[in-house]
Design goal:
Layout lengths: L2 E6 L3 H12 L4 E7 L2 H11 L3 E4 L8 H11 L5 E5 L4 H10 L3 E4 L4 H12 L9 E3 L5 E3 L9 H11 L4 H7 L4 H14 L5 H10 L5
Helix pairs in contact: 2-3, 6-8, 6-9, 7-8
Length: 209
């Protein structure tokens, strides 16, 4: 059985390299390549791939927004994130958004192929987000964004990327008032007073795209 894949990444050389590597596997076929989230949504609706392989940082529409729109129209879609971001906040945000897996771009081709096969089979594939404490015991890494809802996390990353409330409302198909309410709730929960403070916080946490 061949696993049909649609891939979205705005870095052309990266995307073409991954496509070539995947097509060399007899069990995987890349049926379309997309440059951003907008193209990805149209491609998913057209091809109904077994696995959607996508980056987070893309022009016109970020991965967090794209996955929300995809799952609203294809609730059973299997999304595998391929990203350069290894921060736990990104992993948890994409998991909460509905992704089935998360693979770092620094991973081997074999690891990516394995992740695609697992996700296609209905399994999940996420990196370990636990850290070792001083006594050698594993402890769960607590994200500072854990207090935010799924929607608030989407808004958080869009604010961190410099988007206005009006633009966020357009991207997330919500009213301006709703976008501003989410923004206000985020500030309260994270003890922030402005977008500048949010961006500084995101920068310190390594969350700026």
């Amino acid at each position: 059985m061949t696993i049909n894949v649609v891939i979205a990444d705005d870095h052309v050389l990266m995307r073409q390299g991954v496509t070539q590597m995947l097509n060399a596997n007899e069990h995987i076929s890349v049926v379309d390549e997309c440059n951003d989230g907008v193209e990805l949504i149209a491609s998913v609706l057209k091809h109904s791939p077994d696995v959607i392989l996508m980056d987070i940082s893309m022009p016109r529409m970020s991965g967090l927004v794209a996955i929300d729109k995809i799952l609203s129209q294809r609730s059973m879609a299997k999304v595998l994130v391929l990203s350069m971001h290894n921060e736990v906040e990104y992993v948890e945000a994409m998991r909460d958004a509905g992704a089935k897996g998360y693979v770092l771009k620094e991973s081997s081709g074999e690891s990516l192929v394995d992740a695609i096969k697992k996700v296609a089979a209905g399994k999940t594939c996420f990196p370990d987000t636990e850290e070792n404490s001083e006594d050698g015991q594993c402890q769960k890494h607590i994200s500072p964004l854990s207090v935010l809802t799924r929607r608030e996390r989407e808004v958080f990353f869009l604010v961190a990327a410099g988007n206005t409330s009006k633009r966020i409302a357009e991207l997330l198909d919500m009213s301006l008032k709703t976008a501003e309410n989410h923004r206000s709730n985020i500030y309260k929960k994270l003890d922030l007073s402005s977008s500048a403070e949010l961006i500084r916080m995101a920068g310190k946490a390594g969350l700026l795209e």
